[in-house]
Structures are given as C-alpha cells and as structure tokens.
Design brief:
mainly alpha, f41 fragment of flagellin, N-terminal domain, rod-shaped
Length: 293
C-alpha cells in the first residue's frame, strides 16, 4: 500500500487530537478533583457514585431524625423530672396535713399550694415543643389536658410517635399517652383537695398518700422506659456517625482523584504531547505547494 503525504498528515493530526483530549482530561480532573465530569467518561464509576450518594443522603436524613427524637426525649425527660418533684411535694404536704396539730388556716394554705402544684403539672402535661404537644401521642396539635384537669379523650389516631433511624429500624420518640398524665392522676389530686377541705375528718388523707405513691411510681416507670430508649439512641447515633464516615470515604474513593497521580499523569501527558508535536513537524516534509507560495 502506498503511503501518501496526506495519510501521514491525517494520522498525525488524529494522534495529536487524541493526545490533546487526554491532556484536557487530566486538566479537568485537577480542576474539579473528580475522576469523571460526565457519566460517559466512565459509566461504572457514575453508577456506583449514584448508589454511594444515595447512602450518604440516607445517613444524613437518619441523623436528622435522631436529632428530632433526642429533642422529644430530652424535653419529655425534663417534664417527667419536674412532675416527679411536684408529686413528691404534694405527698409531703399531705403528710403534713394529716397531723392533728394543723388548724383550718394551715390546711387552707396547704390546699392552695396543692392547687398551684396541680396547675404546674397541667402545664407540664401540655409541654409544647416546636408547635407540637409531646405528651399526646401522634395527635400533636391538641393539648392533652384542659386547664380544669380534664384529660382529653384519646382517639383511634392517637398513637405513639415512631421515627425511622435506620433501614428498618424505628424508635418510639414519645411517652405514650395515658402513662403519666392520666385522668386518674388529676382525680387523685381533686380527691386530695376535697380531703383538705374536710377539716373534721382526715382519714381520706391516708388514701391520698397511697394514691400519690402510685402516681409517683407511674412517673418513675415512664422515665425509666424513656431512659432506656435514650441510651439506645446514643448507640444509634454513634453507629450513624460511623456509617456516615464510611459512606463518604467510599464515595470519595470512587469519585475523587489522587492528586499526586493526576499531576504526574498531566506532566507525563504534556511531555508526550510536546514530543508528538516535535516528531510531527519532522515527519511532514515540505511539499511542492510550500515552494509555490
């Protein structure tokens, strides 16, 4: 086969263009820090990158969910702690009232403090966080207890607040309705106030002490259950932190370049390109047209 000057020129230009494209590829990698700039550069890396990015986004969403659960639990724990203190103070006042040395004025003073403690417990039952009542289950728009101590009736939709913190892992964020702030609790407080009004017969005060003990135990049990879930959340949060680091590391290994390697490739390709230009200028000899100019 006869090799013409045109064939030499065409091959040289094609090779130079390929070399220039390769040079541009390495420059793009250094500018962006990524191995590819479009899926067609390497479909395998692109497909894996989609999967890794999805995993990173999921982990970040789970961490936001964990933050929301921690917010619910922290506020619930603080409210239960205050409730326990209020009930214990009521018990102390009831024991004080059961003494026969109290006169009518002293009992009235005790009753007034019990009323204030009751209002405080109602406020705690109606704890609102970011516009949501946290002690009314999934019915977060309505307050669970009225100002008069009447507990709102639980509807069929008033369920626990369950939030997903992992693939198939869900955790209850709330203290279930009807666990602490029950109608029985406020009925017991009303019975205590009635007993304090009856200055002649104080036998009902002993019953109020027993009732308060039961309500205090209910609050302690609810707080213990909440504490166990809070401990679990610490483990879940730690695991999500590890998963986030690993997911980002895997995504980086798939997409990000090794800068030292990329710089070496660029310098090498630049030298090859210059050598190709130099060799091409020698291969292509002047033609008759060059002498006719």
């Amino acid at each position: 086969m006869r090799v013409t000057q045109g064939m030499l020129s065409g091959n040289m230009m094609r090779n130079l263009m390929n070399s220039q494209n390769q040079l541009g590829k390495y420059m793009d990698q250094l500018n962006t820090g990524k191995k590819i700039s479009k899926p067609s550069d390497d479909p395998v890396i692109a497909m894996k990158g989609i999967g890794y990015r999805t995993q990173v986004v999921q982990v970040e969403q789970y961490k936001r969910n964990v933050g929301e659960i921690n917010n619910w639990m922290d506020n619930s724990d603080a409210a239960l702690d205050e409730t326990t203190k209020a009930l214990q103070r009521m018990r102390e006042l009831t024991i004080k009232a059961s003494s026969s040395t109290n006169d009518k004025d002293e009992l009235a003073s005790i009753r007034e403090e019990v009323e204030q403690l009751e209002e405080h417990i109602i406020d705690l039952a109606n704890t609102n966080v970011n516009g949501k009542y946290i002690f009314n289950g999934s019915n977060t728009k309505d307050r669970p207890v009225k100002p008069d101590g009447k507990v709102e009736g639980a509807s069929e939709d008033n369920k626990d607040v369950v939030i997903e913190v992992g693939n198939g892992t869900k955790i209850k964020a709330n203290v279930p309705p009807g666990t602490v702030f029950t109608q029985e609790l406020f009925d017991n407080i009303e019975a205590l106030k009635d007993a304090l009004d009856d200055t002649g017969d104080r036998s009902d005060l002993d019953k109020s002490i027993e009732d308060l003990d039961d309500r205090i135990n209910d609050t302690i049990d609810a707080r213990a259950d909440l504490g166990a879930r809070m401990n679990r959340m610490e483990l879940v949060e730690s695991r999500l932190d590890e998963q986030g680091v690993l997911a980002k590391k895997t995504m980086s290994e798939n997409e990000d370049i090794d800068f030292a390697e990329a710089i070496t490739n660029l310098i090498t390709q630049e030298s090859l390109h210059r050598a190709a230009l130099s060799a091409g200028s020698r291969i292509i000899q002047p033609s008759l047209i060059d002498f006719l100019r």
